[in-house]
Each structure stands twice: as structure tokens, then as C-alpha cells.
Amino acid sequence: MKSVFKSGALALAAAALPAAAYAHPGVGEAAGLVHGFSHPISGLDHILAMVMVGVLASQLGGRAVWALPATFVLVMILGGSLGMAGINVPFVETGIALSVIVLGTFIALNIRASTAAAIGIVGLFAIFHGHAHGVEMPENAGGAAYAAGFTIATALLHMTGLGLGFLIARFGERQGAFMVRTAGGVAAVAGIGIIAGLI
After folding, report:
1. pTM over 0.70
2. Sign of CA dihedral 100, 158, 118, 96
3. Which residues pair with 141 in a beta bridge?
4. pLDDT digits (tens, 9 = 90+) for 171-196
5. Which domain holds residue 116?
6. How many contiguous H segments (helices) and E segments (strands) does the chain have?
7. How far apart are CA 116 and CA 48, in angstroms?
8. Which residues lie closer than 8 Å to 180 by C-beta, 6 or more apart?
9. Percentage of residues in the chain with pLDDT exceeding 90?
10. Angle 138-143-147 (CA atoms, 0-180°, nearest 5)?
11. pLDDT for position 39
12. What is the tally of structural domains in the chain?
């Protein structure tokens, strides 16, 4: 299992290198990749939700470890395509804030949802996040490169959440569970602050 995560982390890091290489102003594909990569990491709501997907996946364990992040990324690409095409999705900002609250609450309360239910919840919220990424694509950005950028950044944030979840679990069953649930609670409270306009 560890070798799988190490290999995945290395692959994602290697895939992210072009974003670093093209960090200077550019047009088309270069601008698309950089803008796409920066969008998910430019807002606290996106960061918290992406990391919480990874933490929840580690908390549920089993096939949820790969199924939740994979579902989020795939459905997010669909949502991003809708945004790029100018197709309206209602309540996007509310949906994004709710994703932080719901995912954080699931973790804080240690709700043992089935993998199928968790996939459904994660997939629903992924539409909102993807749509937000899609509608904010700059005019001079290449669409495919922009999508690749926000996909890579999202996957890296999921990996961060998974890593944190597994790292915290090493503190022992009781202490680790308490720390994971506390992290979920903090995220849920932050989500309430976001939806209330306080953050």
C-alpha cells in the first residue's frame, strides 16, 4: 500500500513540474496549465474540501481510499466542462461551502458511510467545484491545459489529505482518531464561516 502511494505521489509531482516550469506569463497552453493549477489552491474553500476528501477516504479505508479521490476528479472534470461551455449550474458557491461543512462533519462525527454513499456525496460536490474552475478560465488559456492544471492540483490536494489521514493514524488508534475528527470539526466550522461570509 505504501509503495502505491509513493508511486502515485511521485507521478503527480512529476506531472506538476510543467506548471512550475511555465510559471512565467504566457498564452495558450502555458497560461492554461498555470492558471488551471493555481485555481484550486487559491481559495480556502477549495483547499479544505479537497483535503477533506482525502482525509475522509483514509478514514473510511478499503476501496474508498482510491474511489473517493478518483470520483471527485472525474466528476469535477465534467463540472469544469460545463463551466467552460457556459452552461449554468445553480448554487455553485453555496455548494462549494456546503462541501466543506458536510465533509468536515462526516469526519468529525466519524460517520461510517458506505463507500457507495460517500462516492455519491463526493461526486455531487465535485460538480460545483469543477464548474467554478471552468467558468473562471481566462480567455487566453488553452482549455485542455487549463483542465489538466486544475486536475493535477486537485489530485495533489487529495493526496495531501490521504497522507495527513494516514500520518495522523500513526499516533495510535485513540489519539489518531481524535486528531482526525478534530481536523474535520475545524474544517466544518471554517465552512460555516465561509457560507456566512465571515471568512
Report:
1. yes
2. positive
3. 28
4. 767 787 888 899 999 999 999 999 98
5. 2-195
6. 8, 0
7. 22
8. 55, 58, 59, 107, 165, 168, 169
9. 56
10. 100
11. 81
12. 1
